[in-house]
Design brief:
49% strand; mainly beta; 1 helix; Immunoglobulin-like
Length: 169
Amino acid sequence: MKQLMRTLLAAALALTAAAASAGAGIGVANVWIRATVPGQKVAAAYLDITSPVAAKLVEARSPAAGVVEIHSMTMRDGVMEMRRMEALDLPAKQTIRLAPGGYHIMLIDLKKPLKAGEKVPLTLTVERVDGARSQIRVTAVVKDAADERKPADGMKGMEGMGDMGGHQH
């Protein structure tokens, strides 16, 4: 009986360790948000994300906003269209850039204006093809227009990784 309990405990610990490392290897860099003006209630976050295996970015959250969504932006017949996405595909070993004029994370109902130099926490949820989900916590640097061309602090802002066991424009 004791041997069975030890085996079950070892298996549970191994599964916990495997789940905790599910987000390992997902790289997030150049995380930034464009500064807002007084009264502006929305902002966009940008970043580069790379997964070692096929996965999807399925959710983003931030305490700085009431609602956070993943968006795409495309040109159609000379008109820019922004759409909420249920998920953003992350092909294995390819960096996906979320940047102005393309994919981005929309922060809606901002709790306060975002000023250049401030830091904003974001939590990204990534789902692998096997259904395993991981949360990646990053910190976005708020930049004004003059600073947008400068790279963010790269991989700085990674606070840790761990397993996580209708707006239209």
